[in-house]
Amino acid sequence: MKTHILAGLVTLFVLSLDGCGGGSSPPPPAPDFAISVAPASLSAIAGGTSNSATVSISPVNGFAGSVSVAISGLPAGATTEPSSPLSVTASAPQSFTITTVESTPTGSVPVKLHATSGSLAHDASISLVTNPLIQTSQSGSMLYLQSHANGHTARIGVDTAWGGAIVEVSMDGVNFVNAHDTGREVQPALYDGADQYPWPNMTVAYGWNPTLGGDDYNQGSPVLSQQLGASSIYTQATPLQWNPAHYGGGMGAPVPADMTIEQTITVAPGTAAAFQVHYKMVHTGSDTHYNGGQEFPAVYVNSTYTSFTYYGGTSPWTNGAVTAVSAGTNPSGYAPEQSAALVDANNQGLTVFVPGVYPYWNASWPAQSGGGGPTGNATVYMAPSTTFSILPGQVIEGDVYLIPGEAAEARTTVYQLHQSLSDSNIVTPIVTVEAPAANATISGTTAAVAGWAFGKTAVMSVKIYVDGVLNGSAILGGARPDVAAAYPNLAPVDCGWSYSLDTTGLVNGTHSIVLRATDASNNEAVLAPVPVTVTN
Questions:
Q1: Quick one: DSSP state of residue 328?
Q2: Taking all residues of the chain, what is their mean pLDDT, rounded to a whole number?
Q3: Which of helix, strand or coil describes residue 383?
Q4: Local structure of residue 160 (DSSP, 8 states)
Q5: What is the tens place of the pLDDT at every residue in 238-272?
Q6: Is the distance from CB of 501 to CB of 442 less than 8 angstroms?
Q7: Distances from the Cα of 55 to the Cαs of 92, 94, 216, in angstroms?
Q8: Both 179 and 37 in a single domain?
Q9: pTM for the structure as a whole
Q10: Collapsing DSSP states into helix, strand and coil, what is residue 353?
C-alpha cells in the first residue's frame, strides 16, 4: 500500500515540474516571400518596345518555392516578353519588356504584378508611359515634324522659302492650313499703333507690318538659321515689311523689318498630336512701335472649315457647351479657355490654344473665290486678341499650340495642356486717350488728360510724358461702366483714369503727350503720341 502511494506522489511531482515555466514553445513562422520590381516606370514608343524591368523575389523564413507573376493592366495592343505569367525564384530574378503596337494609346497607365505561390499572394506595380513616334524630315524648302500615335499621324510643316512660316498642320494626310501666298499661313505678324493701315478702305498701302512669311509681292522672308533636330524644328528669320512700297521697296526690292523671329516647334509634352510653337521675337531697332493689336498668330485655314467654335461662357475649364458660328459673319467672342477652332461639318479642323493673351478671339472669311486647296484663294481666318508695344531692344516670347483633327478631342488636349501650365501674361494693357483729342488746343493749370485702361492683370500705373519728359501719374479707378459693358468679363468697371496737366510751364506751341501704362505683370503699353497745341 505504501508502495502505491509513493509511486503516485512521484508521478504528481513530475507532472508539477512539467507545468512550471508556461508550457510548450510556439511553432516556427511559416515561409513567405516579398516581391519587388525595378525600375518603377517603363517607357515605350507606340509600335516599339520598352526598356526592361526586373522582378525579384526575396525569401522570408526559409521560403524556397517558385513564384508565378501575372502581369495585368496593359494598354490595348501591348504584350510582355516573356509572356505573362512569369516564373520567378529567389535565386533567379526575371526581366521583361513591354511591346506596344502603333494603335496603343499614348499616356501613362499603371501595370499590376500579382505574385502567387500556393496560398501566398503579394502585389507590386510599375507604370508604363507610351509616347508617340516622333520623326523629322526635309523635302526641298520644307521642314516636317510628325507624331504617330493612337493609329493616327499628325504633321506640321514649315517653308523656309517663306521665313519658316507654318504651311501645314495635318491629320492623317489632310492639311487644314491654307498656303495660298506669303500672308496666308499660320504665322505672327506685327503692327505699330501709330502706323496702321487705313482700314477699311486700304487705298494707300502703308504701315509698319513685319510678317514672317514675306510681303505682299509674295517675296519670302529670309531664313537666317535653321535646324532639323530628331524631335524639333528651329528657324530664325528676318520678317519682311508686308508693304515694301511704304519704305521705298517693291517687286524685286523686299524690305527687311527691324525684327528677328525665332520659332521652335516640338510635340507638346504628354500629348500625341499637339504641336507647341515657341516664338521669340526680338526688336533690333532703337525706335518704338506703339501699342496696338497684333497677330500672334494669324491663322488661315482652307475654305471648308467655316465653323468658328469656342467656349464662350463664364465657367471655363468645366467642359461647358461650346459656341459655333459661321466665320462668314465675321464673329468675335469672349473665349476664356484661350482657344478656338475652325472646323467643318464633321467637326474636323484646326484648334489653336494661345495661353498668356487676352480671352477674346475673332474670325472672318476674307476671301471666298477660287479653289479651296492649299493654293486656293478661298480661306478662313481667326486670331486671338493680342496687344504689344515694341520698344527698343524688346524681346517678346510666348507659346502657341496647334492641334489638328476632331475638335472635341482637341479640346481635351487643351485641358490637359492647361493643367500643366502656369498662368502667364505676355500682352500689354489696352489703353485709350479720350482727352485731349489729337491736335487739340489746351491751356491753363488743369488741362484734362483722361481715358481708360485695363489689362490681363491689373493696371498699376498710367504715366504721362510731355515731349519725352515724365510729367506725372494719372489717378486710377474712375467709373467706366460703358467700357466694362463693351469688354464683358475682362474690363473692370473702375478702369477710368484722369490727370490734370499744368500747361503754364510749357512754351506756347506744339507739344507731344505720350502715355505709358504698366500692369501687374510688368508689361508696359506705350501709346502713340498725341499732338497738342498749348496756348496760354
A1: G
A2: 92
A3: strand
A4: G
A5: 999 999 988 999 999 999 999 999 999 999 998 99
A6: yes
A7: 9, 5, 65
A8: no
A9: 0.87
A10: strand
CA 421 to chain CA mean position, Å: 8
pLDDT at 269: 92
Q: How many domains, the chain?
A: 3
Do 399 and 441 lie in one domain? The reply is no
For 307, the grid coordinates are: 465653323
Q: What does the radius of gyration of the chain's CA atoms come to, in whole angstroms? A: 35
Chain length of the chain:
536
What is the structure's pLDDT at 378? Answer: 84
CB 68, CB 86: distance < 8 Å? yes
CB 122 within 8 A of CB 147: no
**160 and 255 inside one domain:** yes
Backbone CA torsion sign across 509, 514, 515, 518: negative
Question: 125-146: per-residue pLDDT in tens?
Answer: 999 999 999 999 999 999 999 9
Q: CB within 8 A of 180, min separation 6: which ones?
A: 300, 367, 370, 374, 375, 376, 377, 379
CA distance 242 to 189: 9
Q: What is the pLDDT of residue 366?
A: 72
Helix or strand run (H / E) with residue 9: helix 2-19
